Amino acid sequence: MSTHGTVLRRHWTSGRRQVGFGLLELSVAIGIFALLIVGAYAAYLSITHAQRARDFEKVITQITSSIGDLYKGQAGFDEISPQVLASAGGVASKFVRNRGTLSEIVVADSALIDIFPDALGQRYVLVASQLNEDLCVAAARMNMKDRLDQVFVGSNDRSVFIEGRPLTLEEAIAVCSESTNSTVGFSGRLYEGSIVAWILR
């Protein structure tokens, strides 16, 4: 074979190797880029969920403080409801959704808040329903301090009643992770999905 033919073959083979190596680099770069996107999205979701939980806790704390101020010096909590609280300005207007003559309190985009007196009117019940797992866990672990008598967490699949303290992280995860979008009855009322209900004084 001529020298000229050998040089051409080497040049062609070298060119093929360079193209192959370029494709390998490109594949690695795309893989790394995809991993970075997945990692960034996971971090974004984690931050978003944490922020929603903090906002939820802040609104619940505002509601309990407002009820304490509204009923200060009174023997009980007769007539307490989302409408009464909303009319008294006890919750920021951005969390109040009006449905005709009724007012709903909606937190973290979808969690519904219900408030009503207990059977004797000496305590009140604060119910958060339609909770996703993250909000359910955050709500179940909220420290209501000396106002808390009992907390109920769960759905029709699994539930727990605890006296005088919030749930631990392990307890909350165990109950909230097994909840589904079923309807659950609590204190004669029906709620959708996972609920956390505090009986407060």
From TrEMBL:
Parts of the chain that traverse the membrane = 21-44
InterPro entries referenced in this protein's UniProt entry, alphabetically: Bundlin, N_methyl_site
GO CC entries = pilus
Q: What keywords are assigned to this protein?
A: Membrane, Transmembrane, Transmembrane helix
Identification of the protein by name? Uncharacterized protein
Can you name the source organism?
Thalassospira xianhensis MCCC 1A02616
Lineage at the top is: Bacteria, Pseudomonadati, Pseudomonadota, Alphaproteobacteria, Rhodospirillales
